[in-house]
Amino acid sequence: MDSALSSDAARLRGVPSVIHADADSFFAAVEQRDKPSLRGKPVLVGGNGPRGVVATASYEARRTGAHSAMPMSRARRLSPAAAVLFPRFEAYSAYSRVIMSELARLSPLVEPLSIDEAFVDLAAGPWESRVAEAAQAVRARIRERTGLAVSIGAGRTKLVAKIASDAAKPDGLLVVDPSDEDAFLLPLSVRAIPGVGPATAAALERLDVRLVTDLRHQRLDVLTETVGEAHGSSLYRLAHGIDLRPVAPSGERKSVGAERTYPTDIFGGETIARAVDAVTDEALRRLATHGGGARTVVAKVRFADFTTVTRSATLSQPSADPATLRAAAHEAVRGVGARDAVRLLGVSFHNLSPHAQLTLGWEEDTDTADLDRAVLDAREPEAGPVVGSSRRTIRGPLTAANARPGLDIEHPEHGRGWVVHVRGDEATVRFETHETPPARSRVIDLTTHPVTVVPPLAVVRFADTVDGPDPSS
User: What is the pLDDT of residues 120-141, one digit of tens each?
Assistant: First the structure.
């Protein structure tokens, strides 16, 4: 180990007081919790349109080969018995608030990564010397309050804690003592290291680097020549277990974006359109890493005479759908009137929302290729959420037009339940909640026995929960 690494290694903690908590198969687990008839059965949450994508697959569905970011059509072929449900972001947000509030009881330093996972620095609270006890206690409290399983990994760095929580799944706890780090890390695939996605793994494969131990034996100059200066330096440090990133709760981010200054001015509608696509793709990668969606897209254009003009396009609701945001970017650029002698192009997303990341289009043509590319790109350098199109909150009488499998409904006589499917004026529903036994499907004539789409019970049940850190920060 060189002197710089040795110096940084001396700054590492002596105890595994960083934990990473991650709810297991979160969206699907919430659905199984709220719908007793689905417990122990395969569940797919996501879009069911021609280009629908799986947001989450339950462990039962995963055993058949289905997984998140997979086209729903393929997942249904692999798991034909699976229940396919429309995402209920209100329910997921309510459960998330409980999880984050319980983690905040351990320490004031909680860094949410997404709606269902976060780092916690136990050294900032009373649990630094009782890591396993703290982790077991918070897992038990979350299960008691929500019925959900949360896996936790603990180590002296974010790197080890995150990998340990993955290794602990499902429903487990793994504490990696500093003395055991090498035995834990070195046999792992390089894909276990954050920032090593398909492209980086392929580049490392050409160096015969497949395991973390292989990566550790590579020279720094070889890695930087192979994957770039910044990425190579980061991988070199992580392979040696050096990760000094603090657990850092951050304020709400106002915008994300990208811009590009061209060596020579660009001309012509088609050339500028291609340039807008390229800049927007970079902005989308950053949005995917940040998580959530945006309602406003701003284009910035600087002409050859250094005149700079900005224009914006605002959507009716927040979206994380790449096609929707790309179209809005082109609309904003057209508003500038950019056709000749463009020196700089920028695209940024504003009015960010955590909820757009939670829903995927049900009947819209969500572009699977764009979604997959956004997801894969977001994994380098840091894992990002599956993104998709945002949908409005559905309320009022249940009809064939607004019906979505999984929606919460209420009947004056039979009480609460959820939609299985609707055909014409007939709705197949199950009247059950997390507090009732599993129910059989019933067919209701909506013309004589109307039912109402209502908020999830979790929204009411957890209404008084004090919010933890905002996962969108």
Answer: 999 998 999 999 999 999 999 9
